[in-house]
Amino acid sequence: MARHKYYYNPKTLRYELARFPWATWFFRVAGVAIVSGLFFYGLLLLVNRFTETELEHKLRTENRALKNHRGTIEYELNNAHAALASLSGKDKEIYQRIFLTPKAEEAEDTGDAQDILQTDLEGFHQVADRLISQTDVTYAKASLASWNFAQLFWPKKEDVSELQQYPTLIPIQDFKLSQFVCGFGEQLNPFNKLLYHHEGVDLEAELGAPVLATGDGRVIAAVRQTTPYGEGNYVEIEHINGYRTRYEHLAEINVQRGQRVQQGQVIAQVGMTGEATAPHLHYMVLKNGNPINPILFFTEQIDEHSWIQLAEIGKQVKQALD
Amino acid sequence: MARMRYHYNPETCQYEPIIHTGRHFLNQTGRFILICLILAFGGLAYYLTHYPSVDENQLTRENHELKWQWGELQNEIRHVSNQLRALEHDDDDHYRVLLAMNPLDPSMRLAGAGGHAPVLLPAEESVSEILGAYDSLFRLGNRIEVHEQSLKELEAEVAVKERQLSTRPAMQPIDNRQLTRFNSIFGMRLHPVYRDWRNHNGLDLTAPQGTPVYATGDGIISFAAYNGGYGNVVYINHGFGFESRYGHLSKFNTQAGQQVKRGDLIGFVGSTGVSTTPHLHYEVLYHGKYVNPINFMYRDVKQEEYNKLIRKAPTVLPDNKSSGVERR
Q: Using one digit for the tens of pLDDT, what is the confidence trace for A29-62?
């Protein structure tokens, strides 16, 4: 049994039982906590100082390696940047020399979400909202037009086959926008670099690439010429309603005069015969003998967005290929 | 002074003051330290088994930081690589097609010797970031090297193409404003002097005596002298199989061996040789065969466009008193 402690109370002149010393014990416990905490921390530092775990070793070597090689990588990367800049300069120069028009700046690929985050979000929202509402309206209109169109044409098969008689295809297989070199209208003559009227479009393609009939029709000319000027080997097809298409500078011709051809049929191979400065197809659409802009007929294989881009490219004054 | 404390001693039946001796104090301190140590060790044991060490923490933080930086580096490498890919794409699918060259084999694009292999310690090789970065830089270096070569090839080819375009006869040798008559008959025709049917190998452009005659394409003057029926004639060798001839000149502005550019003034209209009136007899030959010059004139060119070509020529007033004029 614990011994009781007493104290002398001078007022009562008696020994009285001392109360439990809460304060003392509080300070004792606190002292223990603080001192053991300090010990703990000291020991921890000691252990840390004199031992190395496997993980620490691994991390330490890895960090050292990462730090040591960062400089080299940065240096090499800078070199690569410089080399790329010079290559890109040369590339632009070559483009300029080939097309006589400066190369359009490629839009920097916006892989950095940073740029988007830093943009004025409020303005962005406004633009986005407007675009969305416009898109909705356009979509509604398009749906209506599509429905009307379907009502008009879809059930009648003969009408669909009539559509095929218009030159609505792009005469090159797997057409990409970059293959569209020179548009219709005022363009630069490649030889004397003067403006002249370019009566078709120049579609770049590899030598021997297949040329497709853009619509059903009858071949009214399949001419082979070896002159260093003019259209070279060419095919002319007569379609419906006074439309004709012409395919010039061909390497090989697979059809004969008078032959009937189907839309999409391979009629020839791309070449550079006649007055061609590069392998390409000079494609013309004529209505009653007058050349019209063939882009207007590229309605099937490309979407509206690409088509608008195509029209923009077509407006640029560039060096034609013949 | 601290208040004294007392014990009740039942044996003596007295309250006795509690007196702390030094020994008691030592005892207490020792106990205190022991308790603290036990607690500290216990805590340490628990901590070490359950938490990473201080160094580990710090190293891990550092490691994360470094890896993030390396990630950025790799992103940048990827960015450069993508830009290069765009250039390669243009090169292969655009320029080479247009220049009728074969595209580079994709395997060849990787087979350059531009980058250099990294020297790594065994411990460093285990760090995937380092190895990966060096690897991608190595490949990037190779591709850059190959692309450089490829662009050089392209440049050479473009230069040839440019020469081919600039040398080709591609304009009317006389300004439309001075042209009074254009005789477009090429082939058989009744000869105005001999009065018989002969092949006309060129076109006749009638213009006043002394009208400037321009070179229709870049080339070298291979002949500039009096030559029989041609009278004073200039031959220009354009290369790539083309030659052009300018007959019946009254006066030369060039001599054989001279380099000329398209639009340069080479002579003046006259009526030398077999000719009835001052005019230019213009011929174009392709690989030694006469071709119809009409295909090389682009007559529909607008005047201001045409002026661009002859702007380079020195402005010379028509000279009507030229020597060497022979009329027949």
A: 999 899 999 999 999 888 888 888 888 888 888 8
Q: Which residues of A touch B126 (CB under 8 A)?
A: 62
Structural domains of chain B, count: 3
User: Which residue, among A76, A88, A87, A85, has the nearest Cα to B138 in the 3D structure?
Assistant: A76
Q: Does A278 contact B147 at a Cβ distance shorter than 8 Å?
A: no
Residues of A in Cβ contact (< 8 Å) with B95: 94-95, 98
State the SS3 of B27-76.
HHHHHHHHHHHHHHHHHHHHHHHHCCCHHHHHHHHHHHHHHHHHHHHHHH
Task: Give yes or no: residues B130 and B96 share one domain.
Answer: yes
**Percent of chain B having pLDDT more than 70?**
91
- Rounded to two decimals, the ipTM of the complex is 0.75
Rounded to a whole number of angstroms, the distance from the CA of A241 to the nearest CA of chain B is 30
- The pLDDT confidence band at residue A159, using thresholds 50, 70 and 90, is low
Asked whether B6 and A15 are in contact (CB, 8 A), the reply is yes
For an interface test with A, give the residue of B97, B214, B261, B296 to mutate (most A CBs within 10 A). Answer: B97
Q: Does B102 touch chain A (CB under 8 A)?
A: no
First to last CA, chain B: 152
* Tokens linked to B138: 């190595």
Q: What is the CATH number for B206?
A: 2.70.70.10
CA distance A137 to chain B (A): 36
pLDDT tens digits, B69-102: 999 999 999 999 999 999 998 888 888 888 888 8
Angstrom distance (rounded) from CA B195 to CA A6 = 160
Same domain, B197 and B306: yes
**What pLDDT score was predicted for residue B107?**
79
Nearest CA in chain A to B135: A73
Domain that holds residue B226: 181-310
Residue range A277-289, pLDDT digits in tens: 899 999 999 999 9
